[in-house]
Amino acid sequence: MTDLVLYGHPDSGHACKVALALSLAGVRHSTVWVDIWASPESRPADFLVASPFAEVPLLVIDGTPYVQSGAILLEIATRFGCLGGETPEGQRRGRELLMWEANRIGMCLPQLKEAQRVKGQGFPQGAIEWLTMRYQADCQRFATLLGDEPFFHGPKPGIGDCAIWGYTQWLSEAGVAATHVMEGWLHRMRALPAMRPPQTFFPE
Ligand SMILES: N[C@@H](CCC(=O)N[C@@H](CS)C(=O)NCC(=O)O)C(=O)O
Predict the structure, then answer these.
(1) Which atom of ligand 1 is nearest to the CA of 13?
(2) What is the pLDDT of residue 135?
(3) Are residues 123 and 64 part of one domain?
(4) Per-residue confidence (pLDDT) for residue 98, from 0 to 100
(5) Which end of the chain has fewer CB atoms within 10 angstroms, the N or the C?
(6) For the domain that residue 112 is a member of, what is the CATH number?
(7) Which amino acid residue places its CA nearest to atom 5 of ligand 1?
(8) How many structural domains does the chain have?
(9) pTM over 0.70
């Protein structure tokens, strides 16, 4: 049986993407809570060896470390044949959604959330306005990508949905509003039986 250990923290949307994928796919795994707010040197020694930037998520599969949330999602989908990984079309869709998320909505939302947390301190003048402008463009693209389907992968969620969920779960914490289209998708995502709050994905 495959042994999986996921290192993460409830405040990390990147780690939540992977936790959600494993939960949706019903892949058994254990988790290790890593304090992302503490100094990197204080993190577990095995984690520091396996994660080159001392970042979560880290997924260790049978002793092999996998880092970068998008790459981990692709590994899960292809290795376990799930969440879009079942077909070449699903894999292509997953890759496209992951690239979009990482370059666009998954770039501005974590920054906007952090800006709210630190009340803008340390952000150069105009940065928050620029990120907000990008988010507004991302809202339109979100609707284009979703189309008339309930999920980004069609009738069922896939790795693209997991990636986009990572930080859209915290729109109010990022100080931005959801569009009507987003609200519908977020509601469907929250209603998934495999969905859990971040603290349940990563108990301390
Ligand atoms: N590009 C990476 C981003 C990972 C990342 O930024 N992780 C943050 C938490 S969201 C982290 O571990 N921060 C702790 C640190 O940098 O010390 C991914 O997609 O996995």
Answers:
(1) 10
(2) 98
(3) no
(4) 98
(5) N
(6) 1.20.1050.10
(7) 55
(8) 2
(9) yes
Q: Could you give the CA distance from residue 101 to residue 98 in angstroms, rounded to a whole number?
A: 5
- Tell me: do 151 and 97 sit in the same domain: yes
Report which ligand 1 atom has the smallest distance to the Cα of 55. 12
For the stretch 2-35, pLDDT in tens is 899 999 999 999 999 999 999 999 999 999 999 9
Q: Which of 53, 104, 202 to mutate to test the pocket of ligand 1 (most atoms within 8 A of CB)?
A: 53
Q: Is the domain of 114 the same as that of 185?
A: yes
Sheet holding 30-33, edge to edge: 30-33, 4-8, 58-61, 64-67
pLDDT value of position 130: 98
Query: Which residue carries 């339109």 as its tokens?
Result: 140
Q: Which residues line ligand 1 (CB under 6 A)?
A: 12, 14, 36, 40, 54-57, 68-70
Instruction: Give the tokens for residue 72.
Output: 């981990």
Question: Alpha carbon of 60 to those of 2, 45, 156: distances in Å?
Answer: 10, 14, 27
- Which of helix, strand or coil describes residue 40? helix
Report CA(148)–ligand 1 centroid distance (Å). 32
For the residues 115-123, what does the mean pLDDT come to?
97
Phi-psi region of 19 (alpha: psi -120 to 50; beta: other; left: phi over 0): alpha
Report phi then psi at 152, rounded to 5: -65, -25
DSSP-derived 3-state class of residue 148: coil
Q: Same structural domain for residues 67 and 93?
A: no
